[in-house]
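Input/output pair, single chain:
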Amino acid sequence: MHIEIRIDESCKEPKVLIMTDKITDEVNTIVEAFSETSPQIISGFVHDTVEILDQADILRIYASDGKVFADTIRGNYQLRLRLYELESRLDKKSFARISNSEIINLKKVKQFDLSFSGTICVTLSDGTVTYVSRRHVAKIKQILGI
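Output:
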């Protein structure tokens, strides 16, 4: 890919032009990154207080008993959004869905254990152990380049 930046003082608003011979996954990813309009803020509740969560602090987001929670380096928070809504707000380079009920921060993974047949055991930086469901194993292996 070739990137070119032109400085034009008459241009009042940034403009992105993509020149290509065909639409590819790479082009779609670039378009998606530049056209992202949804808010990236994630709010977590502890008792009666609301805190803005920094995505870099989130270890994992999971659903349990009909509620959604975020484990962070500062504690556990209840979220009011559904997993699919959170998935669209999270940085796609840092977060991956590993099951129907869990999303992990790839930057907070300590290790992946591939010795289990049909699944992957994930250990997070805080020691939490979770598992990639069989349905998501191929995607995680693709992300890891294996």
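The longest strand covers residues 58-64. The radius of gyration is 19 Å.
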